[in-house]
Amino acid sequence: MDNWEVLSDNSLRHSSGKFFSIEGIRVNTDFPQPKVWEQPIINQPEIGYLGILAKEFDGVLHFLMQAKIEPGNVNNVQLSPTLQATKSNYTRVHGGKKAAYLEYFHNAKSSQIILDQLQSEQGARFMRKRNRNMIVKVEEDIPLLEDFRWMTLGQIKELMQRDNCVNMDTRTVLAGIDFAEYLVSEADLSEMSGFGRAMYESATALSGVKTLREVLSWLTNLKSRYDLSVERVPLNQIKEWECRDDEIVRYDKKYFRVLGVRVHIANREVVSWCQPLVQPMQQGICAFIIKKIGGIYHFLVQAKLECGNRDVFELAPTVQCLTGSIFNGAPRPPYTDYVLNAKKEQIIYDALQSEEGGRFYHEQNRNMIVVADDDFPMDLPHTYQWMTLGQINEFMRYSNYINIQARSLIAALKYK
Prior knowledge:
Strand content: 35-45%
Number of helices: 11
Number of strands: 23
Structural class: alpha+beta
Helix content: 10-25%
Radius of gyration: 21 Å
Shape: globular
Oligomer: single chain
Largest sheet: 7 strands, mixed
């Protein structure tokens, strides 16, 4: 790969020292029992922008979306935020063109900002990675470039019902909007579906089976109880992995591999480059089970430990795993069978959604939301908890609480 090299510490790194690197790590944890493993991981310490411009047209808020090609996309083009750029990209380490619309986010006034959060990325693939998720409202007319269009939130959410139309970065940004703060008039409520009104009621409920204080105490107890230690290991010495000329791969071909690609995309800041991409060995599944408790929908979340988490656990969907861990005879994660065997009338959302095509090659997960039947047990394993949508939204205001898989599912919720 042009401009990439293996350094003396055996990490695979860009010759500029910027962008990201592929490094080896050793993970040691006592959750759920003592275990140690080694793996490659993406180290990208920079905080990038995931930003969407918003503007009202005839009283309706629209979002400026980009039809963006990423080298790892399964279908080339997906709906992306207005600005999707690492610090190395927007500071033009690559020597290419300036990122479009960057100045609207750099120079945003506090009165313009609808959303501004630091949110995590995939904890099993990135080492403590975060991006700045922003929505900035503008009043003035701005130039509309060729690959950009203004879209309503309803249009974007409708496209989320289809496979691989809306990219991960768009989903994580839009998940941060707390609709309970905006949908407050009787006119708004009258336009909702029955399920949409039920979701609104859940989004306005800050207390459910547990109070916010009790949920925070439960999560804090888990973080205090279990340890997660991560140390660097030379990339060519990580156990059970092999560094070949054309890939880094496990001997048993499980989980994922790292491959190199040469990319040509005409409408980018740089039209040609080389880079590593991470390719999964199986498709994944991410699913929320939801249940009405006391008349309010609750989401069944799990506290999930992943090696790249900044603070041991993040709150994840009920089920989040690779299909290889389902069908290879290993014990299945809790509730997996329930989700896979759900009746058609229980499934309110079911679509294949891609992970970020700038780092992952053809990675997609089956995203599902399943309504539990009346017999679904209330008693839970100690790492699972019932939370209202309002409680999830409250945790989402802060960094490193709600993981990106959970945010992707929350973004797909429809109110109409």
